[in-house]
Amino acid sequence: MRIAVVGTGYVGLVSGACFADFGHQVTCIDKDAQKIASLQRGQIPIYEPDLDRLVEHNSRAGRLVFSTELADPVSKADAVFIAVGTPSRRGDGHADLSYVYAAAEEIALALNGYTVVITKSTVPVGTGDEVERLIRDMNPAADYAVVSNPEFLREGAAIRDFKFPDRIVVGTENQRAQAVMAEIYRPLSLNKAPIMYTGRRTAELVKYAANAFLATKITFINEIADLAEKVGADVQEVARGIGLDNRIGSKFLHAGPGFGGSCFPKDIRAIIKTAQDFDAHLRVVEAVLAVNDNRKRAMARKIAAFFGGNLRHKTIAVLGLTFKPNTDDMREAPSIPLITAIRDMGATVRAYDPAGMSQARIEMPDIVYCKDAYACADGADALVIVTEWEEFRALDLDRLKRDMASPIIVDLRNIYSPEELTARGFLYQSVGRVTRALQVESAL
Ligand SMILES: NC(=O)c1ccc[n+]([C@@H]2O[C@H](COP(=O)([O-])OP(=O)(O)OC[C@H]3O[C@@H](n4cnc5c(N)ncnc54)[C@H](O)[C@@H]3O)[C@@H](O)[C@H]2O)c1
Q: The whole model's pTM is what?
């Protein structure tokens, strides 16, 4: 198959590289000339494990090329994927579809012969209808079908997720388009990935419903964590205890500082808006968003609690800035509102992240960035673990204790054991687990 991917970001680049790896002929297109130039030089503009190897291998084999030019590759394509961004629209939280529509208009003028146009971007219900209408208006003679094929990959594990998906959702009732989609994904049927064919609107809603459900699961366990702290229970054990029930499942039950990232917050806002427009309010999802928004500042109060609720003249070391490990993506990372809250309370912030610091500098230019975890902790009054990067799991605790001004660790990802840290002389606070030392203190 000849495939054009419009939008070469996290999703477009990973999808394009994986399609090429399946043996298809792929052109990844982007408006960002710098991004395309660096890809043409073999430099990957994002941090995603193994993506460099995959891109290099398939570029070398001549199956993957990069271009700022849309018309030629689209005119030759059997399938054109739209993978541009759909951020929150400023002001009202609806998905901003201007990039999708701009791409669709450009695609419309370039279509030549039967082509399947596929929205891989996360788009509200009805967007496929609008893309179809738009193409028809721009190019009445075009021979095409518009399909929804939402993407479920997770940054940090994107290639694995793309190649071994739990399911592939294809929204179209058009038989000819279905056959093209089946051919594109044929290599995955060898991995027994189920392809679910459904209506286009249903496919669009599947993506939002999936993200809303996952965000609900996280928010649920976060609230249980708060309760566990109050009643002296351990949220991780609670999560295990409920997760072993197959109806619940153990994934997405890790208590933490609240969800963030490039998808959940904007997708949750968008599904709430869609539901309001159709007068079918999603009250559970609305509560999830509100609870999650409040959580980031609540985490800052957890840190301040060690200092009588005041962080003035304190230096706080923050480990991990990206919204999750193994990505450099800072979009709506919980670290941003958390650091803002810490600074509002008067603290100076020093930070370290293995991959996210150049993105973070754009968002937060006036905090101190450090070369590693130890430089970050040096002289700090408290150390806060915000993102659970692998390299933070085995820190030299004696060195930290020696170098910090006071041995306080706030572990928002529960990667250390309260007993161990307390035994080593740290004042330690995590999420949903009361350390014995703190219990003793409050008993006194
Ligand atoms: N990032 C994820 O983990 C993830 C997972 C599943 C779904 N999604 C969805 O996929 C879509 C893309 O997300 P992303 O994270 O890859 O975004 P991104 O911002 O990383 O990439 C989007 C790219 O599209 C380019 N672009 C915009 N308009 C264009 C145009 N008209 N022509 C060519 N290029 C254009 C931009 O320059 C940018 O490089 C979004 O709808 C998102 O919700 C993302």
A: 0.95
